[in-house]
Amino acid sequence: MIIYHGYVLSTKQDCQFHLKPELKSDANGKPDGFSIVVSNAGDWTNNIIHNPPKKLWVHGYLLHGLLYTSRLFHKIIVVATSSGIRPPLSLFLCNYNEQIHVFWSTPTPETTYGSKIRDTVKKADPNAWIWDTHKQGHPDMVACTYKMVVESGVEAVYIILNLKLTRRVVYGMES
């Protein structure tokens, strides 16, 4: 099994650790590059995008990704908006045999994130809901997530949204 880990990076040695790139391994477990998705969601990330640094500082130890515990379940749903798709990318690339269902809502997904990200999502779940909010408006995240839960019979739902929306979806799933 290919293992994916992440690092926490910064543009300066002692401050603002933000990015959590995924360190990929090849089939033999040897390091095989990084994958970093930076969302233009604040001053720090805006600066990274428009003024790419020549070097980055690594902070701490290798991290397991957010969805590391997903291996406890046979069927899961990943619900994400915008760059919230980044944490589960390492899971999607892992190719383990569990069933993954994806609901990703974001403006202009291919333009914003590129075909590689879209293809990675579709490889994990060929029937993934990739909701383009520019074309389709904002979805009812609770209703869409609930529909996926009922139709797929999953054991767990991983939610990567802002706090307000996360609470709304969790409340909807618990009700």
CATH class term of the largest domain: Alpha Beta
**CATH third-tier fold name of the largest domain:** Rossmann fold
- How many strands appear in the DSSP assignment? 8
Low-pLDDT parts are none
CATH superfamily of the largest domain: Nucleotide-binding domain of ferredoxin-NADP reductase (FNR) module
Number of domains: 2
User: How would you classify the helix and strand content by structural class?
Assistant: alpha/beta
Q: Any chance you could write out the topology, listing elements then pairs?
A:
Layout lengths: L4 E6 L11 E4 L5 E5 L7 H8 L6 E8 L10 E7 L4 H9 L4 E8 L2 H5 L1 H10 L4 E4 H4 L4 H12 L3 E5 L2 H12 L1
Parallel strand pairs: 5-6, 5-8, 6-7
Antiparallel strand pairs: 1-2, 1-4, 2-3
Describe it.
The protein is an alpha/beta fold and 175 residues long. It has seven helices and eight strands, in the order E-E-E-H-E-E-H-E-H-H-E-H-H-E-H. It has two domains: 5-64, no CATH class; 66-174, 3-Layer(aba) Sandwich (Rossmann fold). Helix content is 34%, strand content 27%. The strands form two sheets. It has a four-stranded antiparallel sheet with strand order 3-2-1-4, with helices on one face. A four-stranded parallel sheet has the order 7-6-5-8, sandwiched between helices. Strand 5 (75-81), helix 2 and strand 6 (99-106) form a beta-alpha-beta unit. The longest helix has 12 residues, at 141-152. InterPro entries: Adenylate-forming_domain (IPR052979).
